[in-house]
Write a structure and sequence with these properties.
Strand order of the largest sheet: 1-2
Strand content: 15-25%
Radius of gyration: 12 Å
Number of helices: 2
Distance between the termini: 27 Å
Number of strands: 2
Largest sheet: 2 strands, antiparallel
Order of helices and strands: HHEE
Helix content: 25-40%
Number of domains: 1
């Protein structure tokens, strides 16, 4: 399983989410770590490699 890489203050920002949003985000992160596609994402082109960025709607 891949470990998530948090950039900047994103880890601490996530810890400040409301409980329901943290729970939903945790399930999404777990699924992505296991190789599944996130339910809601937008594709990113970074350093000539395709990336996925999960979207969290509060």
């Amino acid at each position: 399983m891949k470990k998530p890489r948090f950039i900047g203050s994103s880890f601490y920002d996530l810890k400040n989410f409301p409980a329901e949003a943290r729970c939903e985000t945790g399930f999404e992160l777990d699924a992505v770590q296991r190789g599944a596609m996130p339910l809601d994402f937008k594709p990113l082109l970074a350093a000539r490699r395709y990336r996925q960025m999960g979207k969290i709607n509060e």
